[in-house]
Design a protein that fits this description.
Number of strands of chain B: 5
Strand content of chain B: 5-15%
Oligomer: heterodimer
Strand order of the largest sheet of chain A: 2-1-3-10-4-13
Order of helices and strands of chain B: EHEHEHEHEHHHH
Strand order of the largest sheet of chain B: 2-1-3-5-4
Radius of gyration of chain A: 21 Å
Number of helices of chain B: 8
Structural class of chain B: alpha/beta
Largest interface: A-B, 55 and 46 residues
Number of helices of chain A: 17
Largest sheet of chain B: 5 strands, mixed
Helix content of chain B: 40-55%
Distance between the termini of chain A: 57 Å
Structural class of chain A: alpha/beta
Largest sheet of chain A: 6 strands, mixed
Chain lengths: 420, 208
């Protein structure tokens, strides 16, 4: 069985692709269930994994051909941060957004009191938790403990981004714990953590059960910020160039299908099923349909861009995004500070993200594609048009928390989001 | 293997209790000190600091692995007590371990040579006692869906006199139009063909 691109022979047609049961595994699920893989002549088995470490190792050592990964993981693996140094390639971004920070009812009450007359909103939430942290220190009360899903996760850096914006020292003033996403709501209910940053459906599950409230979304921390990627080892990419292209094409086409609002309901049903996330449908719907509830009986907040799979050039692997995450690793002390002088973040990011591979796939699909590798962040509060592309592309807002900016130019060194 | 003067202290975390016990027994027999045996648990980091193992063995698929990962790199201000078994000279051992479904975290400073034989014992135990039920289930489902898809294509090719690619196109279009999974559409075609065709058994690809 071959699709329309049968000119080049595929090096391999039977593939195993790893994923973690989270709503943003959607493009892989759609690629399988709606025949996008088959259309490229690929016979794929999707393999569910319960830990990111397992995804990393099974991909690194060839059990899987490719996997859904947290955006920073292929960069970390390439540098050997937290595991064996195995060079990886992530030429395709699977999703933007989709995360939130949820806190327990009791921490929410403390934060509300701290926010006082300002009211507790996303904008005041960091200052509010900073006050609670200070108050607890003064009272000799237990330190606030927050969960994230992996050391080199977007969620870890999002918690730091949020807390740093109010001047909290994340290494000294709070405790950060790694907890698998499905265990997060329960860990909070049992009081082992006071809150967490996690992907969907796990925020909505905590909210729907009345165990906590969402206080911050990735939307507000970094509007349309990148989240998951498709990772392969560099060796695999070099040995299977045609297969890699076929995989990229299948998933890009599937991601476009996922972003069609007409398909979101069907997508939610597929994702919730026992083979994938295996949760009740109503847990998956809020983020898939962009109708988020922040509290159990609260009003629905319309967030149509809460989870983006394709529009806004979402699948393009921006080198500037790679540099962003390398800088977050350095800020978190995961990349040895003494090595920083010799590490060229742009070169490392470019080697992992390889935008030329995406461009090749997009050209065959006839999709518009950015012609630049770097873009600034924190510049646009509204949708805008990228003209440095094969055809103009409508891009989403890229606002950063507290109107921070992040420059695109590699020469600028792109400073970290400043603490306010 | 050189004889260690002091036996390595080993902690086993395995979601399969029976396998953990067998492995613990095998390691004790080989002269190692098994200091803790646990199931996967989010409290693993605490157990590590309490039992002070030189080496932690954990099943690769355990969700709790990620909680151990934080020992390697989330607390940058503290010493890193455990690193993943990651030296270049042992790549083949890691590969074999990952394939067998066992992962190792090793305290810094423990010699690789001493670790390798422990991991090899674990690999042998894991290979004898595979726990891949979920994986098998998923693979089986994928294979069933593929067979059904091939049958459905065969039915369409015969009835519509079209090529395999065209048959696939029709199936896919139906999946898109009716908001169904491709596997579901194929299944329905196979069922409908069996129902409609008195000689269903004779239709190529429907082997009943």
């Amino acid at each position: 069985m071959t699709g329309q691109h049968d000119v080049v022979e595929l090096e391999k047609t039977e593939l195993s692709i790893g994923f973690v049961p989270l709503s943003d595994c959607a493009p892989l699920v759609a690629a399988y269930e709606k025949g996008f893989f088959e259309n490229e002549g690929l016979r794929v088995t999707l393999c569910r994994e319960r830990s990111w470490a397992s995804i990393r190792d099974k991909t690194a050592f060839g059990v899987y051909d490719a996997s859904q990964m947290l955006y920073p993981m292929p960069l970390a693996s390439t540098l050997g941060v937290g595991g064996p140094a195995v060079p990886m390639v992530s030429a395709l971004c699977l999703s933007l957004g989709g995360n939130a920070i949820t806190v327990s009812e009791s921490l929410y009450a403390e934060m509300s009191a701290a926010a006082g007359n300002d009211g507790l909103t996303e904008e005041t939430s960091a200052a509010a938790i900073a006050k609670v942290i200070a108050q607890r220190q003064a009272d000799g009360a237990p330190v606030i403990t927050l969960g994230c899903v992996f050391p080199t996760s977007t969620h870890h850096y999002e918690l730091r981004h949020w807390l740093n914006s109010a001047g909290v020292d994340c290494d000294l003033e709070v405790k950060l714990l790694v907890i698998p996403p499905p265990d997060m709501p329960e860990a909070m209910r049992e009081g082992r953590i006071d809150g967490f940053c996690v992907g969907e459906p796990w925020n909505s599950i905590a909210v729907q059960r009345g165990w906590g409230r969402i206080v911050m979304t990735k939307d507000t921390l970094w509007n349309n910020g990148p989240e998951k990627v498709l990772g392969v080892t560099r060796a695999w990419a070099e040995q299977h160039p045609a297969t890699h292209q076929a995989v990229l094409r299948a998933i890009i086409a599937a991601a476009a299908w996922c972003d069609d609002t007409d398909n979101r309901d069907e997508l939610a049903r597929m994702i919730a099923s026992e083979h994938y996330v295996d949760v009740p449908l109503e847990a998956v719907q809020p983020s898939m349909l962009g109708e988020l509830r922040w509290t159990q009986n609260g009003e629905v907040a319309e967030r149509p861009d809460f989870m983006v799979f394709h529009r806004y050039a979402a699948n393009f692997p921006w080198v500037s995004h790679g540099r962003w995450f390398l800088q977050r690793m350095a800020d978190a002390g995961q990349i040895d500070a003494t090595d920083n002088d010799v590490l060229d973040f742009d070169a490392i990011a470019a080697d992992v993200l390889k935008p030329a591979l995406y461009r090749e796939a997009a050209a065959v699909l006839g999709l518009a594609c950015p012609m630049i590798d770097h873009k600034p962040e924190g510049i646009h509060a509204e949708p805008w048009t990228l003209t440095q592309a094969t055809r103009p592309i409508v891009m989403g807002p890229d606002r950063l928390l507290n109107d921070q900016t992040y420059l695109a130019s590699p020469k600028s060194g792109g400073h970290a989001p400043a603490s306010s | 293997m050189s004889k260690p003067t002091k036996p390595l202290r080993i902690m086993i975390a395995d979601d399969e209790a029976a396998r953990a016990q067998t492995l613990a027994a095998a390691l004790s027999d080989a002269g190692y000190e098994v200091v803790a045996v646990a199931a996967g648990d989010v409290r693993l980091p605490t157990m590590v600091s309490e039992s002070q193992p030189d080496l932690v063995l954990i099943n690769t698929g355990s969700p709790s692995r990620d909680t151990l990962e934080q020992l390697t790199s989330i607390h940058d201000k503290q010493p890193r007590p455990v690193v993943m078994f990651a030296s270049d000279e042992n790549r083949d051992t890691i590969r074999a371990a990952v394939k067998a479904g066992v992962s190792a975290y090793v305290t810094q400073g423990v010699e690789n040579a001493r670790v390798t034989s422990v991991i090899e014992t674990a690999i042998a135990q894991f290979n004898q006692h595979q726990s891949v039920v979920e994986e098998l289930k998923r693979t089986k489902q994928t294979l069933t869906e593929r067979k059904t898809l091939d049958r459905a294509k065969g039915i369409l090719m015969k009835r519509r006199g079209c090529t395999e690619d065209e048959a696939f196109g029709l199936l896919r279009q139906a999946a898109m139009n009716h908001k169904k999974r491709l596997g579901q559409v194929a299944e329905e075609i196979v069922q409908a063909a069996a129902l409609l065709d008195a000689e269903a058994g004779a239709v190529e690809g429907v082997g009943r």
